[in-house]
Amino acid sequence: MFFIFGTRAKQIRGENTSTMLNCNYCKSNGTVVTLAKFRYFHIFWIPIFAFGLKRITCCTHCKQLRNSSEIPQDELITINQIDFKTPRRYYFGSFLFMMLALSIITAITLENLQISRDIKNPEVGDIYEIKFEENGENTYTIYRIESVEDDVITFEVNDYQVNSTIHVDDLKIDHKNDYSELKEVTPSELDAMKNAGTIRGIDKVDI
Fold it and tell me: Which run of H or of E encompasses 45?
């Protein structure tokens, strides 16, 4: 996958356009307007954020442009009083990224809350998605609850593992009956597994 990104320049007029200055070049009166130029960063031509706003002047008669460094101090005081507001659309990408990040954080939080609730109500047939480390790499498998007692939960450990979360569902379908090892876990140990991030998700048994 490739990204098209970069920066582009944009020019805007101030909020108060009634302030017109005289042009020292062509000697026209009231023909100089104040503008602002800025750059914005984009990805796939979607504006992400704007930066580097600078004031400039332009004579509508002779088209002379002046940067702030070329403007006399007395005119610069007047120009600095003009309010420039970068249009919100040039922060549209930032808004999208924030909404995406908020959605991801909300989804993770809700999933963790659901796991916490499900752990407190274990039932025979529940399937736990388990993460562990093997040879320095994250590995995933599934446990299925075989029995539930007051002080111990017995899991059936699936015989197969995968190296990516996207393939965990394949275990549930292709190896749904491939369990040959039992593992006993106490409720406190189950909580510790959840807090350590070992439990990635729980499929409750269909009633």
Answer: none
Paired sense of beta strands 46-59 and 199-203, if any: unpaired
> What residue ranges define each of the domains in the chain, with the CATH number in brackets?
5-96 (no CATH), 111-203 (2.30.30)
Query: Could you report how far apart the first and last alpha carbons of the chain are, in Å?
Result: 43
Contact between residue 151 and residue 186 where contact means Cβ atoms under 8 Å apart = yes
Does residue 185 contact residue 153 with C-beta atoms inside 8 Å? yes
Name which residue leads in pLDDT, 158 or 136: 158
- Tell me the longest C-alpha to C-alpha distance in the chain: 95
pTM of the predicted structure, to 2 decimals: 0.60
Cβ of 79: how many Cβ atoms within 10 Å?
21
Nearest to 201 by CA among 147, 108, 130, 134: 130
The pLDDT tens digits of the residues spanning 113-152 come to 999 899 999 999 999 999 999 888 999 999 999 999 989 9
Q: CA 85 to CA 37: how far, in whole Å?
A: 11
Q: Which two tokens stand for residue 97?
A: 């990224």
* AA identity, residue 200: R
165 with 137: CB under 8 angstroms? Answer: no
Range with the poorest average pLDDT among 27-36, 42-51, 71-80, 105-114: 71-80
User: What are the structure tokens assigned to 46, written together?
Assistant: 């979607």
Pairing of the two strands 5-13 and 32-43 = antiparallel
